[in-house]
Amino acid sequence: MHVTASDALYKKGLQLAERNDLVGALACIQEHLVACPRDGEALNDAGTILAALGRPWPVVEHLRRALEITGDPRYLVNLAETPVGLTGKMPVLRYIWTHTQNPARW
Fold first, then answer.
1. pTM for the predicted model, two decimal places
2. Domain 5-105 belongs to what topology?
3. Measured distance CA(106)–CA(101) in Å, rounded
4. Are 24 and 15 in contact, with CB atoms under 8 Å apart?
5. Within 10 Å of residue 42's Cβ, how many Cβ atoms?
6. Are 16 and 24 in contact (CB under 8 A)?
């Protein structure tokens, strides 16, 4: 399998995240997403890192896109667990409610 420069950036981002260099990890993963904007796993990982950095609204956008692209319900759970979701912000709760009431939309 051929590894692209973008794939290498994503892998480096994951390694940095494991070493708790969240700012560096996010930079690498976001650069990967420029080349691969429909990479649901990378969107989820970026969202998780943003949550750890305390930046809840970008988390919602990344996880929403990951859910829409992949249809993977794991991302719905991650979205529900974001600080924004837990504080009761209506747009997030409305989005979660809509998707849990109609699993076909996953």
1. 0.72
2. 1.25.40
3. 10
4. no
5. 25
6. yes
CB 53 within 8 A of CB 23: yes
Burial 66-80 (b: 16+ CB within 10 A, else e): bbebbeeeebbebbb
Amino acid at 17: A
Q: Which of 20, 30, 76 is nearest to 53 (CA)?
A: 20
Please report the DSSP string for 16-75 in residue order: HHHTT-HHHHHHHHHHHHHH-TT-HHHHHHHHHHHHHTT-HHHHHHHHHHHHHHH--HHH
pLDDT digits (tens, 9 = 90+) for 37-86: 999 999 989 988 988 888 877 877 888 888 888 888 777 777 767 655 44
Alpha-carbon dihedral sign for residues 71, 72, 74, 79: negative
